[in-house]
Design a protein that fits this description.
- This protein has a single domain, classed as Vaccinia Virus protein VP39 (Rossmann fold).
- It contains 9 helices and 8 strands.
- Helix 2 links the parallel strand 1 and strand 2.
- Helix 1 packs across helix 7 and helix 5 crosses helix 9.
């Protein structure tokens, strides 16, 4: 069992970016995420625990088994939740394509920012359905890089953004997966899927989002694929550097940025 090719990498800076993103978006994505007391919830693809913090805090009387394929990420997640005193979490290294659980083991399943990195997301969802109890729910949250638009817009900034989409695609992932959550849930056999867009719009009247979303989440996310983009010939260095500079302008006076996440819920 080897860790997948994660387009953003497993650096300390990426862990910081994930934490910044989770903290900035907690109200938008998790205002309606909670589980009943006594529930056993599987968090598939917990990564470094950025979402686990909110899950554990929102549902202190539920229990969370948090799995990931990356051992280093799991180590960071254990340490983080230990620091927070989250006693309702446990961690396990496991592969979503080969789940080590009996059928109908979990009351609920939670998936956030995982499917975009998988070559076979429908198969992964079908596997998660197998270990979910009949009547239990699955929650899926994904972004969609095709939903991004910003001002001021430049050819170089758009080219740099496209590098993020293309680099992930070349690794077998799909950063346009947010718009596909409904059909994926249906095709995996789930019932009553409901999907809602959760849009982030940022301007200078929202300084916390300027800092937390544009400067600490979006720009570092794009910057993280620099080596891949240049090595694969997706962009030349001068255009790349200009693109990052232009993206930074969206965080300044007169700039705006918009991006849409999608949150889906379905039952077995």
């Amino acid at each position: 069992m080897t860790s997948p090719a994660y387009v953003h990498g497993y650096s300390h800076r990426e862990a910081e970016r994930l934490a910044d993103q989770a903290g900035t978006l907690v109200d938008l994505l998790h205002c309606d995420t909670s589980y009943p007391p006594g529930s056993l919830v599987l968090e598939a693809g917990c990564g470094v625990g950025s979402q686990t913090i909110t899950l554990a805090a929102n549902s202190p009387e539920a229990r969370f088994l948090c799995m990931d394929i990356s051992s280093p990420s799991l180590g960071q997640a254990r340490a983080l939740l230990g620091e927070r005193g989250a006693e309702n979490t446990s961690f396990l290294r496991a592969d979503v394509y080969h789940l080590p659980f009996a059928p109908e083991s979990f009351d609920h399943v939670f998936v956030c920012f995982l499917l975009e990195h998988l070559p076979r997301p429908q198969e992964a969802l079908a596997n998660l359905r197998r270990v979910l109890k009949t009547g239990g729910s699955i929650t899926v949250i994904e972004g969609d890089h095709g939903s991004c638009y910003f001002h001021p817009e430049s050819d170089a900034a758009l080219a740099a953004w496209r590098c993020l989409i293309q680099a992930q695609s070349r690794l077998g992932g799909d950063s346009l997966i947010g718009r596909q959550i409904y059909p994926l849930l249906e095709q995996a056999g789930f019932q009553e899927p409901r999907v809602e867009p959760r849009m982030v719009y940022v301007d200078q009247g929202k300084p916390a989002l300027v800092e937390g979303f544009i400067r600490k989440t979006i720009i570092p996310m794009v910057a993280g694929v620099r080596e891949q983009a240049l090595a694969q010939g997706l962009i030349d260095q001068a255009t790349w550097e200009q693109g990052l500079t232009d993206l930074d302008v969206t965080a300044r006076t007169g700039g705006t940025f918009c991006y849409t996440f999608f949150k889906g819920v379905a039952v077995k």
